[in-house]
Amino acid sequence: MPTSEPKKSPRAVAVNVLKGGFGKSTTAINLARELGDRNSTALLIDLDDNGHTTFNLGYRDRYEGDNHLQQILIDGADPAGHIVSVTDSLDLLPSHEALEDVETNLQSAMASSQRLHRNVVDPLLGDGYDYIVVDTPANRGKLNDNALFATKHLIVPLRPESGWESGITQTNKRLIQEARQYFDLDLLALVPTDLSERLDQDTRDRNLLYALNRRDDLAQFVPNFARLTPSDWDAIDNGEYTGELPGIRHRASIDKAHRARQPLRDYDPECDQLACYAELAQIVEVGGVIR
User: Fold this and answer.
1) Could you read off the pLDDT of 74-116 as tens digits, one per residue?
2) Between 20 and 30 A from 288 (CA), which of 31, 49, 67, 98?
3) Per the database entry, which stretches of residues form a coiled coil (predicted)?
């Protein structure tokens, strides 16, 4: 890890990939928790209609009842009355079971892609919170457009599954490139997550890491904890690699933290994967990967 850091700035970021089951909620929760721990305050916004982030932080009750996201995004209500506390340094704006209604109503709303920015991020970022993290839907729509416009920064988690390449391709084509026709959108990091297989054999872990690290258009966005150089690959293939296993590795404590309704830091502060989430937090703080 670099010993010196560029100046930190308040920043919002969306955790987004157009494919379900790729670790968005896990990444968003633990990134936001590390940002809060390293700074003063962070807000996590759950815009995914499946509510996994909201459930995994113990606020299933807020997923039902009055549609607070309808009130905030459509009616312009103050978000402060609907934000809940996760830890001393992390708050949550929960998801809601009727987010599909919000999506529909946004279709006919004035400035329909600017509501999250205008009603939540702009008034709260810098004054109320140092950092804001948005967990997004896995499908294209107005809620996703709102997340990208409000944050202008993107982190893409990728699991070592057969659909990872189509996931990043569709995310780039249907989200990033389309958004850049209207506003600046910075990709901050591509995050290999939930890795568990060997790298000296033809495994999905190896294929994902090899493609990310060897493709010029992708390698610049790979965090240091997932970086493998050509000499590293030679060492792996020769049985001589002695470095840390790259990527966010599968750990039972990550799954158990969800069941305990806690971020990983609060459930298992000794987990070795916290260093990866800390680097992700640093990437958000300074606006990119530092080599």
Assistant:
1) 999 999 999 999 999 999 999 999 999 999 999 999 999 999 9
2) 49
3) none
Question: What is the rounded CA–CA span in Å between residue 64 and residue 84?
Answer: 15
The pLDDT tens digits for 185-197 are: 999 999 999 999 9
Question: Please, which residues have CB within 8 angstroms of residue 254's CB and are 6 or more apart in sequence?
Answer: 26, 264, 271, 273
Nearest residue to 26 (alpha-carbon basis) of 263, 215, 251, 196: 263
From 210, 170, 193, 168, select the one nearest 249 (Cα to Cα).
193
The residue behind tokens 């890491």 is 209
247 and 226 Cβ atoms separated by less than 8 Å: yes
Dihedral sign, CA of 174, 216, 193, 201?
positive
What domains sit in the chain, N to C, each tagged with a CATH number? 11-284 (3.40.50.300)
- CA-wise closest residue to 35 among 118, 164, 131, 145: 131
Query: By C-alpha distance, which of 17, 26, 50, 21 is closest to 166?
Result: 17
